[in-house]
Design brief:
With 225 residues, the chain is α/β, with parallel strands linked by helices. Helix content is 38%, strand content 17%. The strands form 2 sheets. Strands 1-8-7-2-5-3-4 form a 7-stranded mixed beta sheet, with helices on both faces. A two-stranded parallel sheet has the order 6-9. α2 (23-43) crosses α3 (72-79) and α6 (153-161) packs across α7.
Length: 225
């Protein structure tokens, strides 16, 4: 019975309908990222953003950024003119507080072992809203200087949902700063990479786009997920 309950929790939070992304959830996300976090980004890290003109007006794209620190998810949300929904491992939804927090931030549960049908349906549902999926193709935080361990899941998802890929290069979030004007974060938004049936080609185009945006070297050794 406990196993069945956990499974039901996961199912309840893995599939999101368009109406889930309502104005109240958007306001909550805005207050957390555009107000609370943005004050920190501007005051402590002297945030600079380039390429906002490359953000499409539609929602038929997936944001894919390089990953340096835990600041990256709220940072990406803070520089966008749309809500950004992230995938979170299903185990996090078993904790009542985390479940409440993630639900209000628009996140949805995924099984890290496989790309479920509900994930594809949720991303398709996002295309009907003013939200988009945000993802970090490297999976985990990595040291600056190299773009490596890039998995193919984000490109497979782009192919399945017919979404373009918006590359976002992040520089400087790995340096923990607490005093005003002691840090420096630069965000560069590239041009959308159109979706195609060639998953590896999309992965490489993203990797080289991030290389151009950040100056980090792209290691194009593909890894399967």
């Amino acid at each position: 019975m406990p196993h069945e309950t956990k499974k039901n929790h996961s199912n309840n939070h893995s599939l999101r309908e368009p109406q889930f992304y309502n104005k109240w959830r958007r306001i909550f996300l805005f207050l957390v990222t555009h107000v609370f976090y943005m004050i920190r980004f501007k005051l402590v890290y002297r945030l600079e953003v380039y390429g906002r003109e490359n953000i499409p007006q539609t929602s038929d794209f997936i944001i894919a950024a390089n990953h340096l620190s835990t600041l990256d998810p709220p940072l990406v949300c803070a520089v966008m003119n749309k809500g950004v929904a992230y995938m979170a491992k299903k185990e996090l939804f078993e904790n009542p507080f985390m479940r409440w927090w993630l639900n209000w931030l628009g996140a949805f549960a995924v099984d890290r072992e496989k790309l479920g049908v509900s994930t594809i349906k949720t991303v398709k549902a996002l295309k009907e809203t003013n939200w988009v999926l945000g993802i970090f193709p490297q999976g985990t935080r990595q040291e600056p200087g190299e773009i490596s361990n890039v998995t193919k899941g984000f490109a497979s998802l782009a192919k399945s949902t017919k979404c373009g890929i918006l590359p976002i290069g992040i520089i400087g979030t790995q340096e923990v700063k607490r005093w005003p004007f002691t840090g420096k974060i630069i965000v560069k938004i590239g041009e959308v990479i159109p979706y195609s049936n060639n998953v590896e080609d999309m992965v490489d185009k993203w990797g080289y786009a991030i290389q151009n945006l950040t100056g980090f070297k792209y290691n194009n050794t593909h890894e399967h997920i």
